[in-house]
Amino acid sequence: MMLIPLAFGLAAMVATLAGGLLALRLRHRIGLVLGVTAGIVIGVALFDLIPEAWDLAGDRWPVRQLMTFTAFGLAGYMMLDRLLAKVPRAAAASWRGDLGPAMLCLHSLMDGLGIGLAFQIDTAAGWMIALAVLTHDVADGVNTVSLSLAARSEAAARRWLVLNGVAPMLGVVIGLGITIPATMLAPLMALFAGIFLYIGACELVPRSQTLEPRLRTGMATIAGILLMLAVTHFAH
After folding, report:
1. Nearest of 193, 185, 191 to residue 45 by alpha carbon
2. What pLDDT, on a 0 to 100 scale, did the predictor assign at position 151?
3. Helix ranges, 58-179 (H)
4. What is the pLDDT of residues 65-102, one digit of tens each?
5. Percent of the chain having pLDDT more than 70?
6. Cβ atoms 163, 16 nearer than 8 A
7. Which helix (H) or strand (E) holds 197?
8. How many CB atoms lie within 10 A of CB 48?
9. At residue 66, what are phi and psi to the nearest 5 degrees?
10. pTM of the entire predicted model
11. What is the mean pLDDT of the chain?
């Protein structure tokens, strides 16, 4: 049975790398790509992470408490970004450029962790979670590369893409080997939702508009949101 979740981890890695390579091919249209990426990141938060947190919460976490974790995620990421801006200029550019991709890698690690834990609990649940993860892994690769290209360089984008590709497989291995209290998964998902909302609305949207200040960039963001609405609808 361990081969099935490991196979899903490998598939998630391939999907992530494929999405990142697609974004690298479209780097000459980075403004428009960032617009789509902004919508995808916001859509992941609204249509994937928050609903998943509510499903996992059951009767253990009231909605208000879960949304508090979302607020903490948004505010905590914002404050970390502001604190990094206070360090010397060269170091600040490096750290702040790596912060967003690092959060995406952590999210991919959590995706793999969810697959591994789900297969420990129930095979059917494992299949459902694994398929849901695979539906947005291509977007994860696109997001990672887009963030790195906007803030750093193509070399940095390739490094973060490799890390993001490895993350879900590593998460599956960890998930199969450890036990995390089920009560903690819901607040973790809600926390990531807040982080993703900040990255999408407060970082990617302004960057995309600065690089390409046209109406079609805003429409690309809306298209990204609608894309994740459709993907998560069919995944669930």
Report:
1. 193
2. 66
3. 63-84, 89-121, 123-151, 154-177
4. 999 999 998 998 888 777 766 665 555 555 666 777 88
5. 86
6. no
7. helix 185-198
8. 27
9. -65, -40
10. 0.69
11. 81
* Both structure tokens of 197: 């909302």
pLDDT tier at 235 (50, 70, 90 boundaries)? low
Task: Please give the single-letter amino acid code of residue 165.
Answer: G
In this prediction, residue 90 carries a pLDDT of: 52
* Best CA proximity match to 231, nearest among 132, 108, 141, 126: 132
Q: Which residues contact 39 (CB under 8 A, 6 or more apart)?
A: 200, 220, 221, 222, 223, 224, 225, 226, 227, 228
Amino acid at 146: S
What are 191's two structure tokens? 């926390």
Q: Which residues have C-beta within 8 Å of that of residue 162, sequence separation ≥ 6?
A: 17
- CA dist 206 and 229 (Å) reads 22
For 212-231, the DSSP string reads --SHHHHHHHHHHHHHHHHH
Q: Extract the tokens encoding 152.
A: 């750093």
DSSP tag of 87: S
Tokens matching residue 171: 């998460």
Average confidence (pLDDT) over 178-204: 80
Max Cα distance, the chain (Å): 51
- Residue pair 168/112 in contact by the 8 Å Cβ criterion: yes
Task: Assess contact for 69 and 191: CB atoms under 8 A.
Answer: yes
